[in-house]
Protein backbone atom coordinates (compact mmCIF):
# COMPACT_ATOMS: atom_id res chain seq x y z
CA UNK A 1 0.00 0.00 0.00
CA UNK A 2 1.37 3.40 -0.91
CA UNK A 3 0.76 6.47 1.19
CA UNK A 4 0.18 9.84 -0.44
CA UNK A 5 2.92 12.42 -0.03
CA UNK A 6 2.30 14.80 2.82
CA UNK A 7 1.60 18.38 1.79
CA UNK A 8 2.98 21.11 4.03
CA UNK A 9 0.45 23.99 3.95
CA UNK A 10 3.00 26.83 4.01
CA UNK A 11 5.23 25.32 1.31
CA UNK A 12 3.49 25.75 -2.06
CA UNK A 13 4.10 23.24 -4.80
CA UNK A 14 6.66 24.47 -7.35
CA UNK A 15 4.19 24.23 -10.24
CA UNK A 16 1.43 26.21 -8.49
CA UNK A 17 1.72 29.98 -9.02
CA UNK A 18 1.38 31.91 -5.79
CA UNK A 19 0.03 35.46 -5.42
CA UNK A 20 3.53 36.92 -5.12
CA UNK A 21 4.93 34.62 -7.84
CA UNK A 22 4.24 35.17 -11.49
CA UNK A 23 3.05 32.20 -13.56
CA UNK A 24 6.27 32.36 -15.59
CA UNK A 25 8.37 31.91 -12.43
CA UNK A 26 6.41 28.81 -11.43
CA UNK A 27 6.61 27.30 -14.90
CA UNK A 28 10.30 28.00 -15.35
CA UNK A 29 11.17 26.59 -11.93
CA UNK A 30 12.97 29.77 -10.90
CA UNK A 31 13.93 30.14 -7.26
CA UNK A 32 11.41 32.01 -5.08
CA UNK A 33 11.56 35.77 -5.30
CA UNK A 34 12.58 37.90 -2.33
CA UNK A 35 8.97 38.99 -1.89
CA UNK A 36 7.73 35.39 -1.90
CA UNK A 37 10.34 34.36 0.67
CA UNK A 38 9.35 37.25 2.95
CA UNK A 39 5.67 36.38 2.58
CA UNK A 40 6.39 32.73 3.37
CA UNK A 41 8.30 33.68 6.54
CA UNK A 42 5.42 35.90 7.63
CA UNK A 43 2.76 33.32 6.76
CA UNK A 44 4.09 30.56 9.00
CA UNK A 45 3.60 32.36 12.33
CA UNK A 46 0.17 33.62 11.18
CA UNK A 47 -1.07 30.04 11.03
CA UNK A 48 -0.46 29.55 14.75
CA UNK A 49 -0.69 33.04 16.13
CA UNK A 50 0.11 36.65 15.46
CA UNK A 51 3.55 38.27 15.54
CA UNK A 52 3.76 42.00 16.15
CA UNK A 53 7.13 43.73 15.99
CA UNK A 54 7.18 47.16 17.64
CA UNK A 55 8.54 50.18 15.80
CA UNK A 56 11.12 50.62 18.57
CA UNK A 57 12.58 47.18 17.91
CA UNK A 58 13.10 47.95 14.23
CA UNK A 59 14.47 51.42 15.13
CA UNK A 60 17.12 49.83 17.36
CA UNK A 61 18.13 47.31 14.72
CA UNK A 62 18.33 50.02 12.03
CA UNK A 63 20.25 52.40 14.31
CA UNK A 64 22.84 49.81 15.27
CA UNK A 65 23.22 48.64 11.67
CA UNK A 66 23.72 52.22 10.44
CA UNK A 67 26.36 52.93 13.09
CA UNK A 68 28.35 49.85 11.98
CA UNK A 69 29.13 51.44 8.60
CA UNK A 70 32.57 53.08 8.32
CA UNK A 71 32.17 56.79 7.59
CA UNK A 72 28.99 57.21 9.65
CA UNK A 73 30.02 59.48 12.52
CA UNK A 74 26.64 59.75 14.25
CA UNK A 75 22.90 59.69 13.71
CA UNK A 76 20.50 62.55 14.36
CA UNK A 77 20.46 66.29 13.84
CA UNK A 78 22.56 68.74 15.85
CA UNK A 79 19.86 69.35 18.47
CA UNK A 80 19.17 65.64 18.95
CA UNK A 81 22.88 64.88 19.27
CA UNK A 82 23.34 67.69 21.81
CA UNK A 83 20.39 66.47 23.85
CA UNK A 84 21.71 62.90 23.60
CA UNK A 85 25.13 64.01 24.87
CA UNK A 86 23.48 65.64 27.89
CA UNK A 87 21.41 62.50 28.57
CA UNK A 88 24.52 60.31 28.40
CA UNK A 89 26.11 62.33 31.20
CA UNK A 90 23.15 61.73 33.54
CA UNK A 91 24.10 59.23 36.25
CA UNK A 92 22.42 55.85 35.93
CA UNK A 93 22.17 55.97 32.14
CA UNK A 94 24.21 53.06 30.84
CA UNK A 95 24.26 53.45 27.08
CA UNK A 96 23.48 56.02 24.39
CA UNK A 97 20.10 56.09 22.64
CA UNK A 98 20.64 53.92 19.55
CA UNK A 99 17.32 55.06 18.05
CA UNK A 100 18.45 58.69 17.82
CA UNK A 101 18.09 59.87 14.22
CA UNK A 102 16.00 56.84 13.22
CA UNK A 103 12.29 56.77 12.43
CA UNK A 104 10.52 53.69 11.10
CA UNK A 105 7.08 52.58 10.01
CA UNK A 106 6.30 48.92 10.55
CA UNK A 107 3.43 47.06 8.94
CA UNK A 108 2.46 43.41 9.12
CA UNK A 109 4.98 42.35 6.48
CA UNK A 110 6.94 45.47 5.54
CA UNK A 111 9.01 48.23 7.11
CA UNK A 112 10.39 51.57 5.97
CA UNK A 113 13.08 53.66 7.66
CA UNK A 114 14.24 57.29 7.64
CA UNK A 115 17.75 58.01 8.92
CA UNK A 116 19.43 61.33 9.73
CA UNK A 117 23.16 60.74 9.33
CA UNK A 118 26.33 62.69 10.10
CA UNK A 119 29.23 61.54 7.92
CA UNK A 120 32.99 61.89 8.31
CA UNK A 121 34.59 64.65 6.25
CA UNK A 122 36.50 63.62 3.14
CA UNK A 123 34.63 60.40 2.41
CA UNK A 124 32.24 59.85 -0.53
CA UNK A 125 28.78 60.56 0.87
CA UNK A 126 26.92 58.58 -1.83
CA UNK A 127 29.01 55.46 -1.07
CA UNK A 128 28.44 55.81 2.68
CA UNK A 129 24.70 56.19 2.09
CA UNK A 130 24.59 53.13 -0.19
CA UNK A 131 26.52 50.98 2.32
CA UNK A 132 24.34 52.25 5.18
CA UNK A 133 21.15 51.49 3.25
CA UNK A 134 22.36 47.98 2.38
CA UNK A 135 23.44 47.23 5.96
CA UNK A 136 20.14 48.45 7.44
CA UNK A 137 18.08 46.43 4.93
CA UNK A 138 20.10 43.28 5.54
CA UNK A 139 19.94 43.56 9.34
CA UNK A 140 16.23 44.36 9.56
CA UNK A 141 15.18 41.69 7.07
CA UNK A 142 17.41 39.04 8.66
CA UNK A 143 16.31 39.71 12.24
CA UNK A 144 12.62 40.44 11.72
CA UNK A 145 11.61 38.72 8.48
CA UNK A 146 10.00 41.98 7.38
CA UNK A 147 10.55 43.21 3.83
CA UNK A 148 12.25 46.62 3.93
CA UNK A 149 10.63 48.66 1.19
CA UNK A 150 12.76 51.79 1.58
CA UNK A 151 15.53 53.36 3.62
CA UNK A 152 15.67 57.13 3.18
CA UNK A 153 18.90 58.79 4.27
CA UNK A 154 19.30 62.49 4.98
CA UNK A 155 22.87 63.65 5.57
CA UNK A 156 22.40 66.38 8.16
CA UNK A 157 26.02 67.26 8.85
CA UNK A 158 29.66 66.51 8.09
CA UNK A 159 31.97 65.85 11.02
CA UNK A 160 35.24 67.72 10.68
CA UNK A 161 38.37 66.29 12.32
CA UNK A 162 38.84 69.41 14.51
CA UNK A 163 35.23 69.19 15.85
CA UNK A 164 35.95 66.32 18.22
CA UNK A 165 33.56 66.77 21.20
CA UNK A 166 35.91 64.95 23.57
CA UNK A 167 38.73 67.36 22.83
CA UNK A 168 39.73 69.45 25.86
CA UNK A 169 39.60 73.22 25.41
CA UNK A 170 42.83 75.13 25.07
CA UNK A 171 44.16 75.51 28.66
CA UNK A 172 45.35 79.04 27.91
CA UNK A 173 42.01 80.02 26.38
CA UNK A 174 39.29 77.94 28.16
CA UNK A 175 36.44 80.10 26.91
CA UNK A 176 37.42 79.49 23.28
CA UNK A 177 37.34 83.21 22.53
CA UNK A 178 38.96 84.20 19.24
CA UNK A 179 40.28 87.48 20.59
CA UNK A 180 41.71 88.42 23.97
Q: What kind of assembly state do the chains in view correspond to?
A: single chain
The CATH architecture of the largest domain is 2-Layer Sandwich
* Whole-angstrom Rg: 23 Å
Tally of individual helices: 5
Q: How would you sum up the major sheet?
A: 4 strands, mixed
| Terminal-residue CA separation | 101 Å
The averaged pLDDT comes out at: 75
Quickly name the level 1 CATH class of the largest domain: Alpha Beta
Low-confidence stretches: 1-27, 36-41
Q: Could you characterize what this model shows?
A:
By secondary structure, this protein is α+β, with helices and mostly antiparallel strands. It folds into two domains: 22-49, no CATH class; 55-163, Cation efflux protein, cytoplasmic domain (Alpha-Beta Plaits), CATH 3.30.70. It has five helices and four strands, in the order H-H-H-E-H-E-E-H-E. It has helices at residues 23-28, 34-48, 55-67, 78-88, 125-144; strands at residues 72-75, 102-106, 110-120, 147-159. Strands 1, 2, 3 and 4 form a four-stranded mixed sheet that branches. Helix 5 (125-144) links the parallel strand 3 (110-120) and strand 4. Helix 3 (55-67) crosses helix 5. It is globular, with a radius of gyration of 23 Å. The model is unreliable at 1-27 and 36-41 (pLDDT under 50).
Topology, element by element:
Elements: H1 23-28, H2 34-48, H3 55-67, E1 72-75, H4 78-88, E2 102-106, E3 110-120, H5 125-144, E4 147-159
Parallel strand pairs: 3-4
Antiparallel strand pairs: 1-3, 2-3
InterPro entries: Asp23
Pfam families: Asp23
Region (Disordered): 1-45, 158-180
Amino acid sequence: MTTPAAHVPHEPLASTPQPSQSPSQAQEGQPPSRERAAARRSAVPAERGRLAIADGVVEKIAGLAAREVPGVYALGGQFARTLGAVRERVPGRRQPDVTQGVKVEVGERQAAADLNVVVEYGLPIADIAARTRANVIEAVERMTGLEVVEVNIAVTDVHLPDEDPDQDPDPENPSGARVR
